[in-house]
Specification:
This protein has 321 residues and is α/β, with parallel strands linked by helices. The protein is built from 9 helices and 16 strands.
């Protein structure tokens, strides 16, 4: 089979496209022929050597994708050859064929394309637990979303609107602000401006009910624009590590700092299927629309990595075998 691989850590130039042995599945696995593969910042970090990688060189990146079942293991009962499958957390996805443990195989409805399935699972299930578990968004909540034009950001906007909240977004350019407004953000401010003052003015000085904080370095500012008794949900640090939070501030303002990690939520196949089923239903009913992805051939992986690292992208980047 063909795969995108690398043997040493470094920039996009270390990626190679070539021939590798196809995986041999175990009794509790299925073999999936990939139709679309999601590219994520975690792939960048792993390529650079900042994240843990399974196995030995040559390494294969990728953890998210969708395709059709080519072969099933001896213990697999409810999946057959030809079935449409998606997954969000299976290693070695940057290849034509991937061995998928049955517990991580998510049925993909006919109403959801392979491209949408590969685009939405990781980011969509993240947005799902953030709005359902980390902080349960309620009707009339005013919600501040950092990096609002990104993949998770645009899905957060749509889910928050679906649940009855109102979104104020933060982003880095007018082009990205337009994408966020198209997703349904009621107001979008730019990081280069005095966004804290703008957010407070937009809420008549009260502050927002909840902030979804994915930048990290802006954590103190997020607390500044959160109302007394409000919540900050910390789930990423794309802009650098946050400074420590003074618990006395939390006590004095009755504010809450909480966090979230998708892998603490997706603890069983039942959880994966239940949550993805709701996500797919929202998509099928038109409540959530996945932005048109930027598509690269798998053999053009170097170019795709450069584009993601440029931070010029909005929405998802897909690799197609």
């Amino acid at each position: 089979m063909k795969a995108l691989m690398f043997k040493t850590f470094g920039g996009p130039e270390v990626l190679e496209y070539g021939e590798m042995a196809a995986p041999v599945i175990g009794p509790d696995e299925i073999l999936v022929r990939m139709k679309a593969i999601g590219l994520n910042f975690a792939d960048i970090y792993r390529r650079k050597g900042n994240y843990h990688l399974a196995g030995e060189p040559p390494y294969i990146l990728g953890y998210e994708g969708a395709g059709t079942v080519e072969e099933v293991g001896g213990n697999v009962r409810d999946i057959s050859k030809g079935d449409r499958i998606a997954f969000a957390d299976v290693a070695y996805a940057n290849a034509e064929l991937v061995a998928v443990p049955i517990e991580k195989a998510i049925p993909l409805p006919e109403s959801i394309s392979f491209a949408d399935g590969a685009s939405v699972l990781l980011q969509g299930l993240t947005a799902h637990y953030l709005t359902k578990d980390s902080y349960s968004v309620k009707k009339n909540d005013v919600v501040l979303v950092h990096a609002v034009a990104g993949g998770v950001g645009q899905l957060l906007v749509q889910i928050i609107n679906l649940l009855g909240g109102r979104v104020i977004g933060l982003t880095s350019s007018e082009e990205k602000a337009a994408a966020a407004r198209k997703s349904g953000a009621s107001k979008v401010f730019l990081y280069k401006d005095d966004w804290k003052q703008q957010v407070l003015a937009e809420t008549n000085g009260r502050g927002v009910d909840v902030v979804y904080e994915s930048v990290g370095s802006t954590l103190p500012d997020s607390f500044t624009v959160t109302r007394i008794g409000g919540t900050v949900v910390f789930y990423g640090m794309a802009g650098g590590d946050p400074t420590p939070v003074d618990p006395r501030m939390l006590m004095d303002t009755s504010k809450t700092l909480t966090g979230g990690d998708l892998w603490n939520v997706l603890t069983s196949r039942e959880e994966r299927i239940k949550r993805s089923k709701e996500l797919f239903q929202w998509m099928s009913e038109g409540h959530i629309k996945v932005a048109e992805p930027t598509v690269f051939a798998l053999q053009d992986g170097q170019e795709a990595h450069r584009y993601l690292e440029s931070r010029e992208s909005t929405g998802k980047i897909l690799l197609i075998p």
